[in-house]
Amino acid sequence: MTMNSAVAEPRGTTREPVLSLKGVSKGFGAVRALTDINLDIYPGEVVAIVGDNGAGKSTLVKILAGVHPQDSGTISFDGVEVSIQTPTASRALGIATVFQDLALCDNLDVVSNLFLGREITRGPSLDEEEMEQRAWSLLRQLSAKIPSVRIAVASLSGGQRQTVAIARSLIGEPSVVILDEPTAALGVAQTAEVLNLVERLRERGLGVLLISHNMADVQAVADRVVVLRLGRNNGDFHVADVSYEEIISAITGATDNVVTRRASAHASAAPASPPESASAPSAAAHAAVAPSEGRLTEPLPDNSTGIDEEID
Ligand SMILES: Nc1ncnc2c1ncn2[C@@H]1O[C@H](COP(=O)(O)OP(=O)(O)OP(=O)(O)O)[C@@H](O)[C@H]1O
């Protein structure tokens, strides 16, 4: 067993993390949901957060989304320590969170959903033409397969709805996008579409935090995978270097606090975690990452159109 809290750093870059958590803890009464979490996300990097049920993934997302304040520890954005007390504060910083429920208005069309709360006006009226043009421009940049921007989102597929929700998160021009289980309940083709979209977000230089139970998704799209176990860091790996089995071991606790693909400053700074007793892999962890789901059998379609416009 390796007792080491080193954190894998992104390759080929000396840039500073856009988002950095140091020693973040959160409790709910007697429940320690998160203890001393360290996490860095760099621009243009997809970081997957994985962990068994109750590992603390949602709590981490909610802290970053301004739903819960952390009890202790610091969060820095673009190198500056910040306080994220409300969802508005989170969005204002440049963190966009797409929760699992997507929060779309089913009866409204794609344009209306994209610009909800950020409508473009001309004089006293909505500038529908401008919003429609921008909607198409954005969806093209994302290589999104949406048949029309004037249909109600209720009539879209699960993958298309996820696409609209992610596209909407970009309207505020964030630097970090958090996706909470974006492919849960999607079929193979729709999952591939959403993973393609994640690639587009990375190409735009965004830091992407991907919460997922699905190892195939993680291995297909993430640069790094960060494992939470019982509310603590229990692994930080370059996806290219780590095996499926190693990730599962870190999730289940068969290998505790295995965090070594590249040493970093965190190695000396992070307090040693008390060793957890190695437990048998839980049924939930196995269900979440059953071998049959472990690899994506189809390559991701190359939807790149070469369009490289910026959101304006
Ligand atoms: N609002 C809350 N009040 C009390 N306890 C909570 C609250 N939210 C989370 N917890 C507890 O904190 C711990 C971490 O929960 P969290 O939902 O963050 O885990 P998770 O990794 O997202 O799990 P899952 O994959 O099942 O969604 C759990 O023990 C959970 O019961």
In short:
Helices cover 29% and strands 21% of the residues. With 312 residues, it is α/β, with parallel strands linked by helices.
Write the layout of secondary structure elements.
Elements: E1 19-28, E2 31-41, E3 46-50, H1 57-64, E4 72-77, E5 80-82, H2 87-93, E6 95-98, H3 110-114, E7 121-122, E8 125-126, H4 128-141, H5 158-170, E9 176-180, H6 188-203, E10 207-211, H7 215-221, E11 224-229, E12 232-238, H8 244-252, H9 266-269, H10 283-288
Parallel strand pairs: 3-10, 3-11, 6-9, 9-10
Antiparallel strand pairs: 1-2, 1-4, 4-5, 7-8, 11-12
Explain this structure.
- The chain has 312 residues and is an alpha/beta fold.
- The chain folds into 2 domains: 1-94 and 175-276, P-loop containing nucleotide triphosphate hydrolases (Rossmann fold), CATH 3.40.50; 103-173, no CATH class.
- 29% of the residues lie in helices and 21% in strands.
- The protein has helices spanning 57-64, 87-93, 110-114, 128-141, 158-170, 188-203, 215-221, 244-252, 266-269, 283-288, and strands spanning 19-28, 31-41, 46-50, 72-77, 80-82, 95-98, 121-122, 125-126, 176-180, 207-211, 224-229, 232-238.
- Strands 6-9-10-3-11-12 form a 6-stranded mixed β-sheet, with helices on both faces. It has a 4-stranded antiparallel β-sheet with strand order 2-1-4-5, with no helix packed on it. The chain has a two-stranded antiparallel sheet with strand order 7-8.
- The site of adenosine-5'-triphosphate has 11 residues, from strand 2 and helix 1.
